[in-house]
Amino acid sequence: MFGWRARLGLMIPTNNTVIEPELALLTPSGVALYTTRMISSRSGYASVSGLQHIVSNVERATEELSITGVNAFLYGCLSTSFVHPDWEASYASHIRKRSKSPAITAMSATISAIRSFNTDDIALLCSYESEMLRLGLNRFAADKINVVSVHSLGISNFSTLSNITNIDIYRSARSMDLKEAKMLCILATDIPSVKIINTLEKDLGIPVISTNQSLLWNVLNELKINVNNKDFGSLFDRKII
Q1: Using CA atoms, how far apart are residues 41 and 50, in angstroms rounded to an integer?
Q2: Are 196 and 166 a contacting pair, CB within 8 Å?
Q3: Residue/partner pairs of 83-91 with CB below 8 Å, 24 or more apart
Q4: What is the spatial distance between Cα 184 and Cα 182, in angstroms, rounded to a whole number?
Q5: Cβ contact 135:83 at 8 Å
Q6: Domain 6-108+212-229 has CATH 3.30.470.20
Q7: Model confidence pLDDT, tens digit, residues 122-169
Q8: How many Å apart are CA 97 and CA 105, to the nearest integer?
Q9: Is domain 109-209 annotated with CATH 3.40.50.12500?
Q10: Gyration radius (Cα) of the chain, Å
Q11: Spatial CA neighbour of 197 closest among 227, 170, 165, 164
């Protein structure tokens, strides 16, 4: 039997080639991951209109995962929460009423992970172009999180994004001004990082989290599944506040 501890249902954009293999690395024994995909863009480029379209797929994706019998729902598109901040809370509430199971978004998990370290001063490493980055910074400000340093890869083309490597992310992080930062947040579900989080924490001397790592950490906490994932960062020593 697969998923004898928990079955997790994951909703992701069709272009995302990172989150599934990363969560597979992080997922402990007895926990199974089931995924459905949602079309956000047929052009190959990220856009606000594409994110509006992806939300229209959520009900269908939820029904598919409900039939699978999952114990929790993970929404793996971070930028949806930038464009539709009010939608996020209604989505989680709707899922809980419908299935009696927790629903966790990439953004809510990232915020919970940051707060678990009792700090508000963070550095951001992300992939977003100017408009999406502006919306993202607005969202952090609304959550009273102080972004003291930002480095963006500035990528909107999906094919370019899918070829970013862990080495690219490591070198980008090392190039940042982190003097005022209490932690580094690698923001997005489609840039790889979980294999280098431990190395970055050692080399930078501050906690490092990623959105994908935060998403799994959050749901395991919600389901009261204890794991020892110290190979993938100090976040797994923390609890939700």
Answers
A1: 5
A2: yes
A3: 83/48, 83/51, 83/52, 83/135, 84/51, 84/52, 84/55, 85/139, 85/142, 87/55, 91/58
A4: 7
A5: yes
A6: no
A7: 999 999 888 889 999 999 999 999 999 999 998 878 788 889 999 999
A8: 16
A9: yes
A10: 17
A11: 170
By three-state DSSP, how is residue 89 classified?
helix
C-alpha closest to that of 203 among 188, 187, 184 = 184
Question: Average pLDDT, stretch 7-11?
Answer: 98
Per-residue pLDDT, averaged over 58-70, amounts to 93
Same CATH fold, 109-209 and 6-108+212-229?
A: yes
- Compute the distance between CA of residue 180 and CA of residue 38 in angstroms, rounded to an integer: 38
Residue type, 1: M
The enclosing H or E element of 124 equals strand 121-126
Domain edges within the chain: 6-108+212-229, 109-209
Whether residue 116 contacts residue 218, with contact meaning beta carbons closer than 8 Å, is answered with no
Q: What is the dihedral of CA 186, 187, 190, 196, to 10 degrees?
A: 10
3-state secondary structure 147-159: EEEEEECCCCEHH
Residue 44, pLDDT > 70, answer no
What does the alpha-carbon distance between residue 192 and residue 3 come to, in Å, rounded to a whole number?
Answer: 25
